[in-house]
């Protein structure tokens, strides 16, 4: 090691030894009602829950808009077809099988 470097290291160590009692006498800085770990975790969990809830609402709105624009127009024709073609056939089958229509007497 270079002689100047060893003198520097010696001075730093000596300075640290001299300042140690001063640091020990200094009171730690007071923290005004610092929140505990559980309180911080609870606050963080609330923030995450709110974020996830907001994302869920956005996804639900997007899914609803997608359904109204892309799926409902296609399925509406199938529902109309089923109402006009299938329901009367089922009603006729029940009339032939049981003699009277039971669809109107449910409930």
Automatic annotation (TrEMBL):
<keyword id="KW-0732">Signal</keyword>
<feature type="signal peptide">
    <location>
        <begin position="1"/>
        <end position="24"/>
    </location>
</feature>
<protein>
    <recommendedName>
        <fullName>Apolipoprotein C-II</fullName>
    </recommendedName>
</protein>
């Amino acid at each position: 090691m270079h002689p100047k470097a060893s003198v520097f290291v010696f001075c730093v160590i000596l300075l640290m030894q001299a300042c140690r009692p001063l640091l020990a006498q200094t009171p730690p800085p007071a923290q005004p009602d610092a929140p505990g770990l559980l309180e911080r975790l609870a606050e963080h969990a609330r923030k995450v829950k709110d974020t996830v809830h907001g994302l869920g609402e956005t996804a639900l709105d997007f899914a609803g808009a997608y359904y109204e624009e892309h799926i409902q127009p296609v399925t509406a024709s199938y529902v109309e077809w089923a109402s006009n073609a299938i329901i009367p056939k089922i009603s006729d089958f029940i009339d032939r099988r049981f003699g009277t229509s039971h669809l109107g007497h449910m409930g």
